[in-house]
Here is the input.
Amino acid sequence: MTFSTEAPEQKLIVSSNAPDQILLTTPWRDRFISQSHQLFFSSSLFFAIVSIGLTLLVFLRVVIFNFEIIHGFGLMFGVFTNAFIGFLITVIPRYATSYEIEPKIYVPIWALYQIAILIGLFIDPVVGKIGIVVVTFYICKVFYLNIMDGYFTSKKESFILTGILVFGAVLLLVETIIGKTISYLIFWSYLIPLVFVVAQKMIPAFYSSNTGESPWQKPKYFLEASLVIFVALGISIEFEFVIAQKIVSLFALSFFSYFIFNLNVYKKTPPIVAILVVAFVWFWIGILVLFVESVFEIQGLRFSLHIMALGFVLNLLIGFGSRVILGHSVPPQRITADKLTIALFGLVQFIVITRIVSSLLFMGNSLLFNVLLYLSSILWICLFIIWGLRYGKTLLRL
Here is the structure.
């Protein structure tokens, strides 16, 4: 932190991503762009409401949109990837002990990414997807150069995260070229690995710092094996290789059960940590349900996909998001969950359960199916509106 005296007032000049420093006498625009997560989280929040809002209107037949674009593309790239890119711009330099990525680099990336999402959703999906691919490749170039300049000798996780982003961009490019949706492949082989690699590192670290207990030491090639399993799952599910899916899902259940049951993260902790641990529980349930779906060849409802998307990814988005906003707030705030945030954590679990029950009712030809389907969508929208009201002032630096 450096100080410079300029008559007639004193200014505090800080680096863009420093959470413990205060920007004074600074225009709002400069405050808002000073930290990458503020830009990308705000956009993710916006698209979370827009995407599911339009999905609900499509369900109600009020508007006509391409459901795969609004729901699949909108959520995977407009909501989840958007938020995690903002997170990675902050943490990858820390993983690699490298220089901070400056606003002059990430602000154009952010702007172009949002433009591409908007084009993909509302104007031309092909142009929008190509835009996302190009921007993602550039983001990965920035990450690669940043990692290479880092002092930390162990850079494996940083390279893996960058590689997953590249792989996701390649899959999206392939989808664009062939003109056929491969959303299941992208979900299982790109989005889930991206979130999982972050989670398996950060959650045990947060738990350990809170409890003082040493985290479980994972096997040497744990990450590499995980990625192979995720890609195999994506391929077998997307192309309906029934026998292969049964074999891979059994292997995945065994492998990730070993991981989940050996994690030393299950003692009582504050809600800001517990919500992240709950996400791991949903992850294991999702893998278990995937195995059951594979064995009994239940493909249509995609129980496991919704459990992973809502139980695992959404929990982490809200949990990580709340923690990051508090931890990087200016002025600093305690990293703790207030009563409203705890209620939002509970609402996430209710949304997951509601979506699961709606699918079960569909199997039973119940008229309540649509009611619960609409309810889960409305609750999602309410979740992000309330979350935005709770953290919007801090996030937007108002």
About this structure: Strands lie at 2-6, 9-13.
